[in-house]
Amino acid sequence: YRSKTMSIVHLFGSLAPECAHNEPCLGYYVRCEGPALLSAGFATYKHVNEDYMIWHVSSVEDTPAWCVGRAEKVGQYKCNIMVIGDVPLERVRGTWKAGANDGSAHDAPGLKLRTFGELTAGSGEGGAGGEAGNGESGGEMRAQLAVSFLARAHADHRAVGLAELGERVTKGRSATDAAIEAQACAAVRPALLEYMSDKIDGEAFKRRMVEARQQAAAEHKQRALLDAAFDAYTVALAARDVAFAAYRATEDEVAAAEAAVDAALSAALEREPSERPEPAPPASVEEEGQAVAADGAV
């Protein structure tokens, strides 16, 4: 069949300690195409490592839900992670649940699903188009799709994640502004009196106000903790950018090395031309008669 569009979803986030054994289920999933790959009328999604899948379950007995689990469990209500919903996976907005070792299910509000834009097969974008069965297995196609999408996924994830978290941090800081401002006003009062008494000039007073605000913010425990955590996040984000760039470079090296192996294999398996001399053409009947007569002469 020819795939019309392919997309990737990213299941990521944190799990409670009792559900941490489900972490291998997290990661990038590629949407599978074709009628035979549907589950309860919805598309299925395969993890780039082939071991896990996401599928939809819906029956009279079971609540419609999206399941994440071992690939061999597709179609069954046997999930490592799940979320209630009877809509396409990309539109699911509920709270995910993860299974614990004792068989119970726990809410996993730290899990999130991010969807990345679709890629039209055969468009040349990412080099992952074409028909299945033209020498590439489903796993190879998924691997190629994963690599082609990872750059976009990384950029999108970084931009969206930073924007969302930055907005939340701004709100968190604003919640502490009133307390910090009150403390800063109390701290700057002596400087105001000195300024009104002409003991310090305007520049010195402005400097004292800035110092008072900075000190008040540093002494506010919740604000100081928030600022330190966000600073650490930006440092970690920069480190991940460096690591991702190294990963992309390594992927290019692996691709080049694989191409070299293929070329060497082709050369090794190529049939060597025969070094034996070509056999002489058969003698004519007349030549054979002359040879017999010569042999019979005394």
TrEMBL record:
Location of region: Disordered: 268-298
What highest taxon heads this organism's lineage?
Eukaryota
Q: Where is the composition biased (Basic and acidic residues)?
A: 269-278
**Protein's name according to its UniProt entry:** Uncharacterized protein
Q: Can you name the source organism?
A: Calcidiscus leptoporus
